[in-house]
Specification:
Mean pLDDT: 91
Distance between the termini: 36 Å
Number of domains: 1
CATH architecture: Orthogonal Bundle
Order of helices and strands: HHHHHEEHH
CATH topology: Arc Repressor Mutant, subunit A
Number of strands: 2
Strand order of the largest sheet: 1-2
Largest sheet: 2 strands, antiparallel
Low-confidence stretches: none
């Protein structure tokens, strides 16, 4: 946090901050990734559970987004050798640390919405 304070005082954005923000956005950008991550944070780990928990996501889109999250090291897919085949998705340690990002986004979003609504009324 002191790095951010130093950044704000100097008014010059270090290239590492820009790269870090770009990296973060590349991993979590899109309409569905954060809802998928949120669902996994709260224990939904089977494909069907995720699909039921996230309104309006198609199976094809859920599959695509899970693959991207897996490629980016946020989600791990585990296939059990059973009949029928059981597949579970879990957050990696890196994926679990997104909780603080999500929490900050929710806090900002609630405050922002309140400010916008207050300015309209």
């Amino acid at each position: 946090m002191s790095d951010l304070k130093d950044f704000l005082e100097v008014k010059k954005c270090p290239i590492q901050y820009v790269l870090a923000v770009n990296d973060t956005l590349n991993v979590i950008s899109g309409k569905w990734k954060m809802p998928i991550i949120a669902s996994l944070l709260y224990g939904k780990n089977r494909f069907k559970d995720l699909q039921e928990n996230i309104e309006k996501i198609t199976p094809r889109m859920l599959s695509k987004e899970l693959k991207e999250l897996e490629l980016n090291g946020v989600v791990v897919r585990k296939v059990y050798d059973s009949t029928p085949v059981k597949i579970e998705y879990r957050l990696t340690e890196s994926g679990k640390r997104i909780y603080s990002v999500m929490d900050a986004m929710v806090e900002w979003g609630l405050e922002h919405r309140k400010n916008v609504v207050d300015s309209i009324t």
